[in-house]
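#struct-pred

JT: dropping the chains for the assembly here, can someone run the whole complex?
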Amino acid sequence: MIRSLGRTAISLVHEYGDWTVFSFSSMAGFLRQRRRRQKLVTAIHEIGGRCVPIILTVGLFTGLVMGLQLYYTLARLGAEAALGDAVGLSLVRELGPVLTALMIVGQSGSAMTSELGFQRNDEQIDALQTMGIDAKSFLVGPRLWAALFCFPALTAFFDLIGVFGGYLTGSVLLNVDAGVYWNHVFDSITWADVRGGFIKAVIFGALTISICSYRGFYSHLKSNLRGVRGVSESATRAVVFSSVAVLAADYLITSFLI
Amino acid sequence: MAESFLQIRGLKKHFGTKRVLDGIDLEIARASVTTLIGKSGIGKSVFLKCIANLMTPDAGEVLLDGVAIGNNRRGADQSDGFTFSYMFQNNALFDSLTAHENVALPLREAVGMAAEAVDQRVEEILKQLDLGGAGSRYPAELSGGMQKRVALARALVTNPEVVLFDEPTTGLDPERKFGVFDMIADYRERFGFTALLVSHDIPEVFEISDKVAWLDEGKIRFFGDPSELAADSPRSWSGLLQSTEEVETNKF
Ligand SMILES: Nc1ncnc2c1ncn2[C@@H]1O[C@H](COP(=O)(O)OP(=O)(O)O)[C@@H](O)[C@H]1O
Ligand SMILES: [Mg+2]
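RK: done, full complex below.
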């Protein structure tokens, strides 16, 4: 019992180390790649570009529903005027980075794991290696760098449209004065809040995209199932691990930032 | 054998308790075609992967022209020309790249040739492999035989000295099989590479083979001319034939 616990602990530490080395060496290796800009643009499009619609949609609805919920809570205290503070701060500090990261994981992260897992099964990763191309740097490197840019950028979109959603419910639908709403939004959010939100976004991006690519790249070692089922299992687990990582990291970072 | 070009000495590889390769010695002459036969799951792909450095053997070494080749199979000063190329059973082409881009990949990414020189070289080899008009098409838009040729083009575009073919004909109909064998024999003549290929197509593959190596239970059980194989051990040879056929039919 104790021995098996110990073995699990050791293998976890081992895996953690492996994953860290994998991520850093992919990022470092990318710097030695050729045609970096083209690869980076492709990766940004892949991770960020295809997430824009979903981010805008989810951001808008989040803002709408927050406007609604917070309005009635604040109205009970007679503090409707603070709607702008409440919506703005919760979006910028928490919901923006967290929900954006979860959306990107669901949309791009899982696709990336499946793609890499398929490429592993199809021996495309081996093929790169025989061509003298470092597969990690070539396939994973650009995506990790792109994540560092895409997550904050999409978080900014989310925050902006979310605040706009809060305005729609708060001022258009209910009766918070529009000027009061926007004043409170801009007065309450400080530069430190924005910076904190971006720090979170960058960390979430690095965590989730490296988890998703690690799971895909090594799907043949991580899953006992072969072929397509092994790949789909890897994708599922990548999403689960990434989501847990986002929430756990959010708690940790918040406790440092507060 | 003084003229042996590719030498494998004492190659060993195990997974867990399973000894897949248990001391393989093999000498392959320059510009020859050697066919590796053996039951499915016996370790033929593992053997090729150890030679190509996709797997690290537990023991043993691979020598090229008498010089042991370490981890860096591509000499640092060699800007052009790879030592080994590998053609994978399922071609391993990138779906998101066109045939042209697939073939250009090693030149662009690893060799770092100028774009124009790459395009010229790729077009040339595509033409040589009768893929003249197919450059702009994606692998999914090509027939199975054309995909194989694109994979072959990608393997040859770097001027390799040794090409490893892992079951280049599995899953093809008989006519296509002969097509692929002819292609290998033909391009070996033209490009002068040394070929090591895995095949279950006994005895058809013997037509293009200079030598046959039979891998069984981690060792080379027979190595020599194809004609000698039948004479050497007709009974076990037919047994081998059966076992490979069994596996092939069991697959479906
Ligand atoms: N990466 C690996 N990990 C564990 N076992 C492996 C690995 N690769 C191959 N094997 C095992 O080695 C044996 C030989 O496999 P392989 O070389 O693919 O056979 P084949 O002769 O059909 O090409 C098989 O039993 C396979 O299960
Ligand atoms: Mg095999």
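JT: nice. The helical segments of chain B are 44-51, 99-111, 115-128, 144-156, 174-191, 226-232, 234-250. Residues B 44-45, 166 surround magnesium ion (ligand 2) (CB under 6 Å).
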